[in-house]
Amino acid sequence: MSHRSNRTVALTTLGCKVNQADSDEWIRQFGALGYELVDFGEVADAYVVNTCSVTHVADRKSRQLLRQARRLNPAALVVATGCYASVATDEVARMVEVDLVIGDQDKPRLVERVHSALEGDDEQPLEALGGALRVFGARHRAFVKVGDGCDKFCAFCIVPYARGRARSVDPNHVIARVRALISAGFREIVLTAVHMGSYGRDLEPSTTLRALVRRVLDETPVERLRLSSIEPEDFDLDILDLWQDSRLCRHFHLALDSGCDATLRRMRRRYLAADYHRLMQSIRDAVPGVAITTDVMVGFPGETEEEFATSYRFIEEQEFAGIHVFPYSIRHRTTASKLPNQVGPEEKHRRTEAMLALAARSAARFRQRFLGQVVPVLYEGSTRTKDGSLTWEGLTDNYLRVRVESDIALTNQVVATRLEACAEDGIRGILLGPVPEIRQAGADLNILSAASR
Ligand code: SF4
């Protein structure tokens, strides 16, 4: 039996960058098997919904996407995976729209399982298919998972139940993966893990995140290297000296969750607001122009009006480059689900709206500081405006979203751009640098289908 396929697959991803990294890996593996990637709204032979369970809204959205997949093609194989599929396996498996639920332990074999289910072939392990790395989809930024799981059991969080204990990927595998992605044409690599700060502690011999980043810089031709979220309590300041290397993106995502100490203690976070502030200061001193983004949760059980106001004031003073605001949502099995004084939905909504407005102001102030500067922007893709012109969009290393008008294709190009004016959620720019020739990807590149991600 041939193990190549001319079938189509559609993937959609909810939630965090670790989910995104998992999906990216599956996209590559589907590509290696000859699958064509199609948009999630199109008819496909298989649909994979990489679900999230961070809130009730995420659960609901996960279910909606699974139903949508079934409606799009009643004959398709519909696969649920990710955190919601792991923590609510029975509930998901009972959905008539779902054919296959792939839990946390089975995720490395997801593509193999889908392929077997479609081809009726249960025998051939994926490894036997071999072959070089093949890619479909956009090639500007690739997520490389360096760890999964978490041991911290913060009071509100379902992740340790859904993804298991913290475990790190062998650094040699990380290096090999980064090299392969770069030779496939990727310009920016994002190292991602659920609990990045504890990277390497479980390995034998043990190692550190700093040592891993050093190796990626030394042993691969990476052009841009970004780290996803690091937990404030596990942030080792020694890592900051590496940022003298301009290939490291000046961007840190440090989940704060609350700026009020009493709330932080109930959340079982392991730092206080003052610790967080000191950390931000150290980072800003070491990395000028750095973007610090964060997550903030509102309406945690027992969060009084005064606690919310304390958190709000603290956040207002920090000048974050971006804030993800989450209203607290009960997750069964977590400690917080049993706490008294749950905050009502209307109050949660009011606090969410207030925090979102603060987030928008804070991000706008951050953007303002960079107007007039000329910076390299990695362009990702374009949209056509009503008047027919093309607007290209990309990111600076310090997480500013920049849009320029250009008739020349800029996808996956790094171009010097002057930052002209603030727009609603980004900056309007003007191209200054020459647009480089389209970079030739390595010989093993095989673009199978354009896909928006
Ligand atoms: S550190 Fe806390 S919030 Fe983050 S994944 Fe672990 S348990 Fe969840």
Please, could you describe this protein's structure?
The chain is α/β, with parallel strands linked by helices. It has four domains: 8-129, Methylthiotransferase, N-terminal domain (Rossmann fold); 137-249, Transcription Regulator spoIIAA (2-Layer Sandwich), CATH 3.30.750; 251-369, Transcription Regulator spoIIAA (2-Layer Sandwich); 370-453, OB fold (Dihydrolipoamide Acetyltransferase, E2P). The protein has twelve helices and 18 strands. Strands 2-1-3-4-5 form a five-stranded parallel sheet, with helices on both faces. A five-stranded mixed barrel has the order 14-15-16-18-17. Helix 1 links the parallel strand 1 (8-13) and strand 2. Helix 7 (171-183) runs parallel beside helix 8 (209-219) and helix 11 runs parallel beside helix 12. The protein starts with 7 loop residues before the first strand and ends in a 22-residue tail after the last strand. The model is unreliable at 121-136 and 438-453 (pLDDT under 50). The structure holds iron/sulfur cluster (SF4). Iron/sulfur cluster is lined by residues 150, 152-154, 157, 159-160, 194-195, 231. Iron/sulfur cluster binds at residues 150, 152-154, 157, 159-160, 194-195, 231.
